[in-house]
Design brief:
458 residues; alpha/beta; seven-stranded mixed sheet; two-stranded parallel sheet; 9 strands; 47% helix
């Protein structure tokens, strides 16, 4: 897969640094790994959230083009894993965008999950929710991420998650919170229902959709089957404090001796290794070019806005550190013996990959109820979400449709919002037929009978 140069340059322009405090408390990681086995299976996850889970609507605003509600509820993860969710993130906040008048017999509603750095509601509301309402009369629920916006801990700067475990807390929250919101939608007569998101939001949407026992629209954009490559081989890996992770992994035996045995790399390591070795020399050359380019910008040899932004960044140092940490020094011919990489560096990276696969790989989760309602949109040249060596979505979700853009991650986000919306509209058109045919605007008695039948079959 050819990687987008724009993705790499854009990543260097940002100052976000992840996991400055390390992996997270070993006891918290152990609880999260154990709980993953529960929420990854529909039969054990769905019963965790009652259909009448309390939701409070705290505000309503009407305008000529829409109605906006604001609501909140306690995240169910705090009930099932007490103390693991930071206090600031325990209340889930959301906005609902509704039309002043519904067209037709259905009231389609889509949950929109946030990508990395997408704080509060305004971006998703204006870029995708309101346009969808205008174009297709599809309502929206915009859920605020744990660790973002009003749910951000006071000591966290921007989107800089302190620990690797924060990603898994975030995912656990969103999976259960989406169940709360889907139940709320049904109680209020909305349907058909769906979930979407861009980048990290796309992957979180994929995880959340696996646990709903009815047909559900799912449109994950710019994500893939696992987050492991995002944090180990994608450009996001340049923003990780590998020194801290490395030190903790070997200074506290709980990580290496106990926790590493609780996680499993899903995709075949040998195949991935062959791909890595095949492309290693060219990747190293490209990385050195990136470092040289960044240093030239910092020295003022390249002008323009990119150069000015880079003068205020320390990314060249982080790139150099990453290269020295993960890659051995090359010979003059740019060739490397892969066996000479320090074994302990490989093991720490493998632990990261195993953790991410354990908690985010879609192979570990139930297959969504109706895969024909899935339209995934991927960028062919995505450097944020590498697909090399990963099981394809087509294999994990037979019947799902995968569409590829000739773009990188950043250019796809900037240039193809209309395409993302058109895929959501198309998937909802498919769902409307199922929704009407199955008579899903059911009364309470019918709903309870179906629920009891489902629970008895699990």
């Amino acid at each position: 897969m050819v990687k987008s140069k724009l993705d790499s340059i854009y990543r260097r322009m940002l100052i976000t640094r992840f996991f400055e405090r390390g992996w997270g408390k070993p006891e918290n990681l152990q609880r999260l790994f154990q709980f993953r086995k529960i929420i990854s299976q529909r039969s054990t996850c769905f019963p965790l959230v009652p259909k009448d889970y309390p939701v409070e609507i705290v505000k309503e605003e009407k305008s000529p083009d829409c109605i906006i509600l604001e609501g909140k509820f306690l995240t169910p993860l705090e009930l099932h894993l007490p103390g693991i969710v930071p206090k600031a993130a325990q209340d889930a906040h959301f906005q609902v965008v509704l039309p002043n008048k519904w067209n037709g017999k259905t009231k389609p509603m889509c949950i929109h999950l946030a990508g990395t750095g997408d704080h509060f509601f305004w971006r998703r509301r204006n870029l995708i929710a309101k346009p969808l309402l205008k174009e297709a009369n599809i309502g929206a629920i915009i859920l605020e991420n744990p660790f973002y916006g009003t749910r951000k801990p006071d000591n966290q700067v921007r989107s800089n998650l302190h620990n690797v475990s924060d990603i898994f807390v975030m995912g656990g929250c969103l999976v259960l919170e989406c169940l709360v919101l889907l139940h709320w939608c049904e109680r209020n007569g909305f349907g058909p229902l769906g979930i979407t998101g861009l980048s990290m939001g796309g992957h979180m949407a994929s995880l959340a959709a696996t646990n709903w026992p009815k047909p559900l629209v799912l449109v994950p954009c710019l994500s893939w089957s696992t987050a492991s490559t995002v944090f180990t081989t994608g450009v996001m890996s340049q923003s990780i404090n590998w020194d801290m992770l490395e030190m903790q992994y070997y200074s506290d035996g709980k990580y290496r001796e106990r926790l590493s045995k609780m996680v499993t790399v899903i995709d075949d390591a040998f195949t991935a290794g062959q791909t890595f070795i095949k492309n290693f020399n060219q990747s190293l050359i490209e990385l050195k070019k990136d470092i040289t380019y960044t240093k030239m910008m910092q020295r003022g040899k390249i002008s323009g806005i990119e150069g000015n932004l880079e003068k205020n960044s320390d990314d060249s140092n982080s790139l150099t550190m990453l290269m020295e940490l993960i890659l051995p020094k090359p010979s003059s011919e740019e060739k490397i013996d892969i066996t000479k990489i320090n074994w302990w560096e490989r093991e720490a990276l493998q632990f990261m990959r195993g953790m991410m696969d354990e908690c985010t790989h879609l192979k570990n989760f139930s297959v969504p109820k109706e895969t024909s309602l899935i339209i995934a949109v991927c960028a062919k040249d995505d450097a944020y979400v590498p697909r090399d060596g990963c099981t394809s979505l087509e294999e994990i979700w037979p019947g799902a449709e995968i569409r590829y853009l000739d773009a990188g991650h950043v250019s796809a986000y900037v240039l193809h919002q209309k395409l993302f919306r058109s895929c959501i509209i198309e998937a909802f058109e498919r769902a409307k037929k199922i929704h009407v045919e199955n008579g899903q605007n059911m009364n309470e008695t019918t709903y309870q009978k179906l629920l009891d039948k489902y629970m008895n079959s699990c």
